[in-house]
User: Fold this.
Amino acid sequence: METVVGRLAPSPSGEMHLGNAFSALLAWLGARSAGGRVLLRLEDLDRPRCPAKYAYGVMEDLAWLGLDWDNDPVWQSQRDDFYAQQIQALADQGLVYPCYCSRKELHAVTEASAPHGRAPVYAGRCRDLTAAQREALEAQGRRPALRARAPERVYRLTDGLQGPFAADLAREVGDFILRRSDGLYAYQLAVVADDGAMGVNQVVRGRDLLASAPQQLWLQDALGLPHPAYYHVPLLLAPDGRRLSKREGDLSLRALGRDHRPEEIVGRLAFWAGLQPEPRPVTPQALLPRFSWDQVRREDIPAAL
Ligand SMILES: [Zn+2]
Assistant:
């Protein structure tokens, strides 16, 4: 059987909080319980929002929880050349075009509804510009974003936790951004290219990202990469019902670590996940022998300590 290769892929735009720790614990358990490898990737594409100090803080927090990894960390901020090659590979197949729309223009024309919390479907304004039209726009000093040409096709997956999911790429997702006009590479491109390059075959992440899985399947096909197994885990909810986020500063691991041992935090996360009947302290290692995806909850979880 193929060795499971999972990954921890935090976006270090602030201090790690309980919601990040919850996904990370399940990603680690999913790979380690199968005797697999765990790789660490720092998703710091948005450099201004992800200074290195946060990345080092996240690594300390993961280690504090008792989660380890097998590689030298991969930093997305250092992989621009690789992402450029991947876009070239797509462009060689006619799957990329420059989009000159400003934010204002996009808001004016994209009134289409956006199911599953997706970005609005791009209306295709720049899809069929002629070379002369492009030159005229460049001459005005417009710098284009690069968009993928979404195919007229339904992509389906069976998520390990959430079950069957499908999207009609052209109608529901539309032509999506691969590189922003300011040069930042898009999450969709980087995550697919990096998972492929790192040999990741098990992707465990928050349920909010399930909506982007179909376009990632298409990118994997276009780049000649295999499809990983997906497990989209529930989200932890703040007392007001919103998704727990970095705004809840008191739920950062740093703040919690002042009054709690890591085993207490892991015990609470494991309880929320459905892995133990009460929130008693436990190490990640101790959860391994009885871990099974069948036990893991599928619905979002109100998180109160
Ligand atoms: Zn455009």
